[in-house]
Design goal:
This protein has about 290 residues and is of the alpha+beta class. The chain has helices at about 15-20, 30-35, 110-115, 140-155, 225-230, 245-255, and strands spanning about 1-5, 40, 45, 60, 80, 85-90, 120-125, 130-140, 155-165, 170-175, 180, 190, 200-210, 210-220, 265-270, 275-280.
Length: about 290
């Protein structure tokens, strides 16, 4: 991948490092890795990162080809959005997002890599194994680095839908309860006074006897946040195998639900290359006629 940039008047006197870092949004670590590879050219000549830029200088940077550390695998992807930089996919329940140190196959990223056919992929957001919905992948590390910086400044808006057993305290509001690990080595979380600040906005969408449908907007990004906030507020998500009450578990069993019915239905964020607001959405897959 080759990037080009023509220096503007405000770039006069700045170092090449500064322009690469703050105009082209190349990470400091990547600049350091590339500085000895003769891939940084100004007006066609290789230069060092301390080179002083003049207005009109043509900067060309060739990024090395990326290679995934995991294999491609076939899969039936539901594509929600695609352009040269990003891929939006609907994640089904029962699949993890990305390979780890102990598992190199059977993930959504393996399937995305197979679909793209080359390079590697970088997940922008992550969903629990059994949570469904919108997932975004950057098609290369450059896009991911720009998007990471963009989201740090502008943030990302996420909307989830979930049916819960019972009702939350009000038709709409904000759950503000700190979350921490149950124990140092545990995967599960709990509400604890000395935990990390955690806030979830919610709004009632539908009521159906013992259960109701809510929209959730996480204002922080803690692990299992919506699931735990629902339980702590007296309305656990249907099907949740961990964060449930005895009553919600029995009701979920009558509906044949064994995983949390939580779906990320929409994500809105600035596009990393254009800056324009982008919304990617999907439909939840958990409603069935015998619920009603």
């Amino acid at each position: 991948m080759t990037l080009t940039y023509t220096a503007a008047p405000q770039d006069a006197g700045k170092t090449l490092f500064s322009v690469l870092r703050y105009r082209l949004h190349i990470s400091a670590g990547q600049i350091k890795r590339l500085k000895y590879q003769t891939v940084m050219l100004v007006n066609g000549s290789p230069v060092h990162t301390d080179y002083r830029i003049s207005p009109g200088d043509l900067i060309r940077l060739t990024l090395p080809e990326e290679h995934a550390s995991f294999p491609p695998e076939p899969g039936d992807l539901l594509i929600l959005y695609e352009d040269d930089a990003l891929l939006g996919v609907h994640k089904p329940a029962g699949i993890i997002m990305h390979p780890s140190a102990t598992r190199n196959t059977g993930t959504l990223a393996n399937q995305v890599l197979n679909y793209l056919g080359t390079g590697t992929v970088h997940p922008v957001n992550r969903l629990d194994r059994d949570t469904t919905g919108v997932t975004i992948f950057a098609k290369n590390g450059y896009v991911k680095s720009i998007l990471t910086e963009t989201l740090r400044v502008a943030g990302i808006e996420k909307t989830y839908l979930a049916p819960v057993y019972g009702r939350l305290p009000d038709p709409e509001g904000v759950i503000d309860l700190p979350i921490d690990r149950v124990s140092r080595d545990s995967l599960w979380r709990t509400i604890r006074e000395d935990g990390q600040p955690s806030r979830t906005a919610y709004a009632l969408r539908e009521e159906h006897g013992p259960w109701a449908l809510y929209a959730f907007h996480p204002l922080t990004g803690r692990t299992h946040q919506i699931r735990l906030h629902c339980l702590a507020s007296g309305a656990p998500i249907l099907g949740d195998p961990v964060y449930h009450t005895e009553e919600s578990a029995v009701f979920s069993d009558t509906l044949g639900l064994s995983v949390q019915q939580l779906c990320c239905v929409e994500m809105t964020f600035p596009h990393p290359m254009t800056g324009q607001k982008l919304t990617v959405s999907t439909e939840p897959e958990f409603f069935r006629a015998d619920w009603f």
